[in-house]
Amino acid sequence: MLHKEVNIEVEKGEMLPLMEEFYTIQGEGYHTGTAAYFIRVGGCDVGCHWCDVKESWNADLHPPTKTEAIVANAARYAKTIVVTGGEPLSWNMEPLTHKLKNAGLKIHIETSGAYPLTGIWDWICLSPKKTKLPTEEIYHHAHELKMIIHNRHDFAFAEEQAAKINDNAILFLQPEWSKKEQMTPLIVEYVMENPKWRVSLQTHKYLNIP
User: In which residues is S-adenosyl-L-methionine bound (predicted)?
Assistant: First the structure.
């Protein structure tokens, strides 16, 4: 396929810059401990300094892949699919999610919410970042709010975001991995004092799995 044609297909969402795909155990948030197939899409300009997948930021490093091929691989492994990034909403998620849904799969997304919501989702995990705040729309649709706690100031930011989220969303505080020794005790104390929140840990890293 010619370069111009590829670009058109990417713009339409019929092809996506695929960084990696793998079958593993969900390590974070509400669905921790459940089997899921992860589709990691390249491209992100949110720019979190503590991001643990910075290699995902430059979409040009990851090959444009037909959504049909992505769906075929996913359907071989699991009934639950997690689309993550990078920032997956940088791209049009309609073609991918419709094909996944037509294959009878449950579809989750992990997003900062910084771009307009596209696609059809069974579960939306919203993880806002200070560097590029979510769109207003996604606060109404998110099922889960996952706030990353890197320092003490992040508790205030977490509360600001919780005030915007819909009443049905489940609230999580998660220590940033490099600060887990310092921040986990503070999170535990905070959740005990503010029980609307739950603790989320990156359990896949403790298990040494992807």
Answer: 50-52, 86, 127-129
